Amino acid sequence: MAEIKTTYMGLELNSPVIVGACGLTDNADKIKKIETEGAGAVVFKSLFEEQINLESIELQEQLSAYDYRNAEMGTLFPKIEHAGPEEHLNKLRKAKESVSIPVIGSLNAVFKETWIEYAELISETGIDALELNFYHIPKNVTKESSTIIEEQMELLYRIKNKIKIPVCVKLSPYYTNSLRVIDKMDKVGVNSFVMFNRQFQPDIDIDSEKLVQHYNLSNTDDFKLPLRITGWMYGKVNADLCGNTGIYTAKETIKLILAGAKAVEVVSTLYKNGIGQIGLINRDIKKWMDDKGYENLDDFRGKLAMESVKDPFAYKRAQYVDILMRENEILGKHNLL
Length: 337
Ligand SMILES: Cc1cc2nc3c(=O)[nH]c(=O)nc-3n(C[C@H](O)[C@H](O)[C@H](O)COP(=O)(O)O)c2cc1C
Hints:
Layout: E1 6-8, E2 11-13, E3 17-19, H1 28-37, E4 41-43, E5 47-48, H2 49-65, H3 78-81, H4 86-98, E6 103-108, H5 112-123, E7 129-133, H6 145-162, E8 167-171, H7 178-188, E9 192-195, E10 202-205, E11 210-213, H8 224-233, E12 240-244, H9 250-259, E13 263-266, H10 268-273, H11 277-292, H12 313-316, H13 321-325, H14 327-333
Parallel strand pairs: 3-4, 3-13, 4-6, 5-6, 6-7, 7-8, 8-9, 9-12, 12-13
Antiparallel strand pairs: 1-2, 10-11
The chain binds flavin mononucleotide.
Flavin mononucleotide binds next to strand 6 and helix 10.
C-alpha cells in the first residue's frame, strides 16, 4: 500500500492533509477529532489583533468596575485571570498537549509590536510552528505597495530572529508580483509558504439593501492559482510549499503535489463535506498512488513543476490567446461543436 507520510518544515506528518485555521480548529476537543480522522497536522484558529484589543478593553472595563476594591481582591474575579489573549494561549497549550500530530499556531495582527509580542507568546505554548497570516486590505490611496511589502519583510525578519520554531507565511493572492515576494521572504528563512489566504469579502443583500458578510467558502476551481505559483516556485526556494484554497478532494491534493507542494491546507471542504473528508482524501491519494505504482509522495512530487516539464507554457500564460487559436480543436474534444 502506498505511503503518504511527508515532512513539512522539518516536522513529520502522517498525511499531507493539514486542516487550515478556522472555527473547526479552535479547541482541543475539535482537534482530537481531526487527528482521529487522519489529518497530518492542524493550524489552530488565528489570534486576531481585534481579539487582543477587544479583550484588553474588556479587561480594562472589568478592572475599573472594581476600582474601589483593593488589589488582593483580584482573585475574587476568576474571569479576569482568563481575560485577554491569555485564554487563546491557554487553549493552544491544551490543544498541543492533547494530540500527537503537529499543532501550528496562527497569528493575524496589524501593528508591528503586537505581531512580535504575540509571535513570541504563541511560540512559548509548545506548538510546533507558527503561521503568520500576512494580508493587507487597501484602505489608503497614498500607500505604496512597496511600503506594504517592506513592512511585512521587516516583521518577518524580526519574528524569525525572535522565535525558534519554524515559521510559515500564509500569503495573500493579491501581490503585484507574488514570485518576487516569495523570493525575498525565502531569503529571510521562511520555512514554508502557504498559498493562499482567502479573505472575507463584503456582499450586499438586495432585499434588505444592507451590507452582509457570509462565510465565504472557496470554490472547487480556486486551487488553480496556488497550483500555478507552486509549480513556478518549486525547486527555486528553500522553503516548503503548501497549497491552500479550493482544495476539496484527493484530486486537487495530488495536483498540488505534482506541482511541488509538500502539503495542502483544507478548510472549505470540511465545512461542506464534514471532517470525514480528511480520511477520504487520504484513502483516495493512496488508491491513485497504488494505481500509478507510486510508493511514496516523493516519487511524484514536483513531476509537473515548471522546472520539470519540457513546455512550461501553461505556467506562463495568463490570456486566452492560445486557447482561442485552437478553439475548434478544444471544443471538438469536449463535444461542444
Ligand atoms: C469559517 C472560516 C474561518 C477561518 N478562520 C481563519 C483564521 O482564523 N485564520 C486564518 O489564517 N484563516 C482563516 N480562514 C481561512 C482558511 O484557513 C483558508 O485559508 C481559506 O478558507 C482557504 O482554504 P479553503 O479553500 O480550503 O477554504 C478561515 C476560513 C473560514 C471559511
